[in-house]
Amino acid sequence: MILVGLLALGIWFGGRAFGIDRQARALLLGLLFVVVLALQVALPDGHPVREATGGEPGLWLLLAGIAGVVYLYRAVLKRVRARAGTDVPVEAPRSEGFSEAELERYARHIVLREIGGAGQTRLREARVLVIGAGGLGSPALLYLGAAGVGTLGVIDDDKVANANLQRQVIHRDWVIGMPKVFSVQEVIGALNPWVTVRPYNRRLTDEIAADLLADYDLVLDGSDNFETRDLVNRACVAAGKPLVSGALSQWEGQVSVFDPARGAPCYACIFPEAPAPGLAPSCAEAGVLGPLPGVVGSMMAVEAVKLIAEAGRVLRGQMLIYDALEGETRRISVARREGCPVCGVV
User: Fold this and answer.
1) Alpha-carbon distance 283 to 288, whole Å?
2) Among 15, 107, 264, 286, which lies 20 to 30 A Cα-Cα from 70?
3) How would residue 87 be classed by pLDDT, with cut points 50, 70 and 90?
4) In whole angstroms, what is the distance from residue 255 CA to residue 218 CA?
5) In terms of pLDDT, which residue wins out, 43 or 117?
6) At how many degrees (to 10) do helices 292-309 and 137-147 cross?
7) Beta strand spans in 49-191 (E)
8) What is the DSSP string of 229-275?
9) What is the tens place of the pLDDT at every residue in 141-154?
């Protein structure tokens, strides 16, 4: 039995060292278990291979039963959590003022003239929806949670994968295979207990977009495809909600605030059509610098905090472009497009 234990440890931790994801390692462990159980049943008493692998078929059948119960429990729990991710969680009531612990935590904000106590209160009362819990959503969610934004919604239908961890810093190795929104909920809950996280473990669609956005003051879009960006833009324009948008490509990123209700262009004014095939390859195809989403996602969080706290100059009608390879940042003006089919009638 010790031999089997050593083999299992080798598969799990050796596979991890070679970059094999959690699901594949679990499958190999299951295969090992099936082989050992087959040897126990097939070989006669006293056979050296049977003795080296435990020698007691009943013990392995008991372990199989326990493993089955655990698997069934986790499957039921996962289904319940996934269903709960489409509902709005009940929020704990907040007291009228800040507690001593909150005042200490947000002291560096409160002493900023542009934020102060009033701005921190607005952050506490704000509801921000983040589209995507990947490269851009990770730093944005971390900093908004740390800043004390009272309610953070996050929608994503993806699961944490080993290849994500090079840049999606909110997730950890031991949650590989977990839906990203629940990984976010755990991390933000540990980071700031005064923040409510609403996880939506599903893809954003036309059918739910309007109802979902209705409960939020501000939207951050960290999605990685034109279809979702177009959908988010149309929903924000229809709801009159500001949209903080970020995008990445290899060594370069960009941030802008699309807000036609306040005179700024919408996303469709600048990007009216999907790029031609091959012109906007995915991160998997073209690659992306690991720290780049941290820079751009943090910029998105900065714009969100400024919007909520009513501080400084927001990037309405401006696009900030960061070139990490050359170490350059530049700002360009963007304007509403006459005849834009999305915001032209706003």
Assistant:
1) 6
2) 15
3) very low
4) 15
5) 117
6) 40
7) 127-131, 151-155
8) HHHHHHHHHHHT--EEEEEEEBTEEEEEEE-GGGT---HHHH--SPP
9) 999 999 999 999 99
